[in-house]
């Protein structure tokens, strides 16, 4: 497949080697306009906005990834395989299912469990464990320490259902020490591994699934500064 791809209008060379990927394209726009110097819109197919600019003199891209594993799977696959992107850092929201993760805390996803059948396409004769790239993970932990940003590192759940018909969908994951629930990291980690590239998910706790506490949609779009600054330094 040549560029542009079916879902990305950018030309060859438009993307940096590292792409920050929030789910919300408006959050991508906010990051580009707030943090990047001379940001340029490089793709807007289906309003999934992508920008490239510089941060502290280094070329960086930011692009929305959408909601759920099929969406981030499409965009990450095309970026990794057709645009020369080496690193994708998901920056998103998550719902806490652990006392370790109060509202607004930052989780670095060491691994991503999932209730999805995404891995079936690889015909693996067993259970695959999607994990982050260790280089990105260790760098993120060290940057967070230098910034004085507290983080929790551990296992997350990438869930297909947002509205789930199960009466008790989280107790087993809680029992196994899973920190929070989101919807994309497992597919991103598998796409990166299959493409021989690198991925990491950094998440801000936007709601607590157990207590019902939550941030507003506006706070989710613009209120994740610490996470954004951590990811930008990582890039």
Automatic annotation (TrEMBL):
InterPro entries: DeoD-type, Nucleoside_phosphorylase_CS, Nucleoside_phosphorylase_d, Nucleoside_phosphorylase_sf. One of its GO terms (biological process) is uridine catabolic process. It catalyses: uridine + phosphate = alpha-D-ribose 1-phosphate + uracil; a purine 2'-deoxy-D-ribonucleoside + phosphate = a purine nucleobase + 2-deoxy-alpha-D-ribose 1-phosphate; a purine D-ribonucleoside + phosphate = a purine nucleobase + alpha-D-ribose 1-phosphate. GO terms for molecular function: purine-nucleoside phosphorylase activity; uridine phosphorylase activity. Coiled coil: none annotated. Keywords: Glycosyltransferase, Transferase. Its EC number is 2.4.2.1. The keyword Glycosyltransferase applies. A purine D-ribonucleoside binds at residues 7, 182-184, 206-207. It comes from the Bacteria. Residues 18-223 form the Nucleoside phosphorylase domain. The keyword Calcium does not apply. The active site is at residue 207. Phosphate binds at residues 23, 27, 46, 90-93. It is an enzyme of class 2 (transferase). Belongs to the PNP/UDP phosphorylase family. Homohexamer; trimer of homodimers. Catalyzes the reversible phosphorolytic breakdown of the N-glycosidic bond in the beta-(deoxy)ribonucleoside molecules, with the formation of the corresponding free purine bases and pentose-1-phosphate. PANTHER family: FI09636P-RELATED, URIDINE PHOSPHORYLASE. This is Purine nucleoside phosphorylase DeoD-type. It comes from Catonella morbi ATCC 51271.
